[in-house]
Structure to design on (355 residues):
């Protein structure tokens, strides 16, 4: 059966609401479904089949319900990184689409929020396929459940995999609410990463669980940023930083600015001067990530001397700058690369963009 055929079949994807309604229909009260949800993350043991605290109908149905949750994602392959304790996971969804997650060093997992992505960042493999479809909140949570099974000490979730969370905001916030309520992962360790959108800041004002925020900045110059992130929401750099700063002060978590560093593109003194002006005195960290090699792309990383120079300049303005490797780079860990290789092997090419 060809992959293309699988993609054309209509599927309805399990949502957290579906799961909840199912448990309620089986007679679950808040203590029962709360226990079931915590057990999904290994926080509490599964109820025994003779545990009288659970209604009989519910007890009998729990193993099948657990299997249903397990079927949301299927691990297609795992790829161990060489340099860092990272593990790249390729998952197949029930309709045959694939997504990537990465188990990160220091007890973190990076999850996807969409199949493909509409933003189209010029340095990103995922951006080249466009948006294929949204992930349901259950599909996002299922990546964390899978991570917890492989590494029970997982205690940080970063929403930085395939997709732009602000383009699937309802499902991402629902997943964050669920994780913050049942997984025992501290709220400050749920890191929502976005290119920026007024709707994100509006929604976070009223959300019960307050995640930490990472902002993909990449340039301080409006025209250049629009070229690098062609379909990001229209919000000025200044408005973005102003809103982010007010969220950081309200929550007590610093903003993590993300900057994919490309030689001759955004590593110049003009950008550095702007970063100093915009971020001096802000409650923020600047994460520079030297660009990943993407097939067919001409972007290259600056050398480490230039990186050091940049850090020194920013330090003068008391801006903390970190230079990071993208986890699992050595196993095609750049966003979307593993999935792209899988699709080629399956003879499917890139999926069709529906955005
Ligand atoms: S870097 Fe992120 S926002 Fe940009 S295209 Fe890739 S997945 Fe989308």
């Amino acid at each position: 059966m060809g992959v293309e055929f699988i993609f054309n079949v209509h599927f309805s994807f399990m949502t957290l609401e579906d799961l909840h309604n199912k448990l309620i229909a089986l007679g679950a009260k808040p203590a029962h479904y709360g226990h079931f949800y915590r057990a999904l993350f290994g926080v509490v043991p599964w109820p025994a089949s003779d545990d009288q605290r659970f209604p009989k109908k519910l007890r009998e149905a729990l193993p099948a319900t657990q299997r249903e949750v397990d079927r949301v994602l299927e691990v297609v392959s795992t790829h161990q990184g060489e340099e860092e304790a990272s593990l790249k996971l390729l998952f197949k969804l029930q309709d045959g689409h694939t997504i990537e997650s990465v188990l990160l060093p220091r007890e973190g997992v990076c999850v996807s929020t969409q199949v493909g992505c509409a933003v189209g960042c010029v340095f990103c493999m995922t951006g080249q396929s466009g948006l294929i479809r949204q992930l349901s909140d259950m599909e996002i949570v299922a990546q964390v459940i899978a991570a917890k099974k492989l590494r029970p000490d997982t205690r940080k979730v970063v929403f930085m995999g395939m997709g732009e969370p602000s383009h699937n905001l309802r499902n991402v916030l629902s997943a964050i609410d669920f994780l913050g309520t049942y997984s025992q992962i501290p709220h400050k360790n749920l890191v929502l990463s976005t290119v920026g959108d007024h709707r994100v800041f509006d929604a976070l004002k009223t959300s019960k669980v307050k995640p930490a925020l990472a902002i993909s900045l990449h340039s301080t110059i409006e025209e250049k940023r629009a070229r690098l992130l062609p379909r990001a929401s229209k919000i000025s750099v200044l408005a973005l930083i102003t809103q982010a700063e007010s969220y950081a002060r309200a929550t007590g978590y610093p903003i993590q600015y993300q900057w994919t560093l490309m030689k001759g593109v955004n590593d110049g003194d003009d950008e550095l001067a702007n970063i100093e002006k915009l971020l001096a005195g802000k409650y923020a960290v600047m994460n520079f990530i030297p660009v990943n090699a993407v097939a067919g792309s001409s972007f290259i990383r600056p050398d480490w001397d230039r990186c050091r120079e940049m850090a020194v300049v920013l330090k003068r303005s008391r801006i903390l700058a970190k230079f990071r490797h993208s986890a699992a780079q050595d196993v095609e860990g750049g966003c979307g690369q593993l999935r792209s290789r899988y699709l080629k092997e399956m003879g499917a090419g890139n999926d069709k963009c529906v955005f």
Notes: The CA atoms of residues 32 and 188 lie 27 Å apart.
